[in-house]
Amino acid sequence: MAINSDRPIYLQIADSLTDDILAGRYQPDSRIPSVRELSAMMQVNVNTAMRAVEQLERNKIIYNRRGLGYFTANNAVELIAQQRRDEFFKHEIDYFFNRLSQIGMDSVELLQRYETYLKLKQ
């Protein structure tokens, strides 16, 4: 994971774990790396890794089984998708639509390009 200086490291680690959950690397109710394992994998301080895990637990994406570690929630994928949608509409949509307007792209072309994109991704 490449560290970006514009955002706190613990949030970048949390995002990396949520990306892994969305990609299917961690299934519902499966164990995620321990805080120490995460710290070593990401080459960060244990406290930084703990903050990332606490963030995910606060967002109900993971939960703690005392003595066993942290596990992905059954509805983690849905929660992550909803949180990312909310973030997109809160922080990015205005910029996105402004750029479309600047380059003169109408809704018909946008829809066509998006449909093409989805076909290529399958």
Task: Explain the overall architecture.
It is a single chain. A two-stranded antiparallel ribbon has the order 1-2. It is built from 5 helices and 2 strands, in the order αααββαα. The model has no long low-confidence stretch (mean pLDDT 94). It is mainly α.
Descriptive key words:
64% helix; 2 strands; elongated; 5 helices; 122 residues; mainly alpha; two-stranded antiparallel sheet; single chain
Give a quick summary of the entry.
With 122 residues, the protein is mainly alpha-helical. 64% of the residues lie in helices and 7% in strands. The protein has helices at residues 9-22, 35-42, 46-58, 76-103, 107-121, and strands at 62-65, 69-72.
How is the secondary structure organized here?
Elements: H1 9-22, H2 35-42, H3 46-58, E1 62-65, E2 69-72, H4 76-103, H5 107-121
Antiparallel strand pairs: 1-2
Helix pairs in contact: 1-3, 2-3
